Amino acid sequence: MKEKIIEVINLKKQFGKNLILDDINFTINEGEAVSLIGPSGSGKSTVLRCIADLETLTGGKILIEGHNLQDKGIDKKIKKELLLKTGMIFQNFNLFPHMTVKDNIVKTLRIVKKTDVKKAEEIAEKVLETVGLADKKDNFPNELSGGQKQRVAIARALANNPEILLSDEATSALDPRTTNSILDLLKDINKRFGITIILITHQMEVIRKICNKTAIMSDGKIVEEGTVKDIFMHPKTQLAKEFVSNISHESFESEEKEEVKERSGGKIRLKLKFNEEQADKPYIAEIIKRYDAEINILGGSIDKLSNTVVGNLTIEISAEEEKIKTIVKWLEKN
Ligand code: ADP
Ligand code: MG
After folding, report:
1. Tell me: the pLDDT tens digits for 14-46?
2. Given the CA of residue 49, which atom of ligand 1 is nearest to it?
3. Quick one: which of 87, 126, 215, 288 could link to 162 by a disulfide (CB 3.0–4.6 Å)?
């Protein structure tokens, strides 16, 4: 059983009189990769900033490994250790422009952990190797591409040996190919070092590639949450449907609407959804064999979510009305 690493309990945050976060609750277990999505201004960054102890909470609490960071009586040393467990990366990288790549990391270790220079240099070289930038250690940030700068920022976060990595739109400024390579790196970090990741993104690609859970925020509240697969297969709120439709080739509509798109004399068009297990089974061949129907495949796609496959297939069946009903029943059952 995995341990809870972050618990957000009845979190409220006001800026002045404005209620920005309104009773946020969620729990994240060690090693999970969770995404936070939602429209701009819905409060995503504020949630991360609260977790990183960069904001004072108006109400509720946040526990990191069971410790309440905001607890006034918390031992200073414990608090510092807990804060060091969290690293953060941003869209704009936040590197020191006047320092080399290596010095960016060394300096941070010196400031944050008072690591001695030799040890800090050793760590810097190791983390740069992890992110694939060993050969850029003596370059300055402005000599690097956006993707490379983000790798430096990730290396710097890793240098503190964090257990949690918070990523606030870290790939939003990158082109799709670079985004992919950064995502592969984050996924590798999550798997290889077991680092828990919470990431904010508006790119469905990001969620699909690395996350196992997603929460959708709107207006300071979490309006829907679940496994990535659940949200992709059965989005409940309108907002979730809109996000999901960004990724599917055809928008996901409600179950009933999806099942029967068009029914006209002797022909029916169906959109079928598959999970990983079903994707391996020869349903189409089975229908043809069982019911002697004519089937046209009009289109389809398979999306690989973090660890599962979901697919959809649009088919057109031509047969007598009665037979079509039987086939639809059989499909529903299966
Ligand atoms: P998101 O990351 O989802 O776009 P944010 O968490 O950045 O949203 O912001 C949520 C709301 O809180 C916005 O209305 C924003 O204007 C407000 N806000 C964020 N930070 C501050 C601040 N320091 N002072 C006042 N208002 C803020
Ligand atoms: Mg934000």
Report:
1. 999 999 999 999 999 999 999 999 999 999 999
2. 6
3. 87
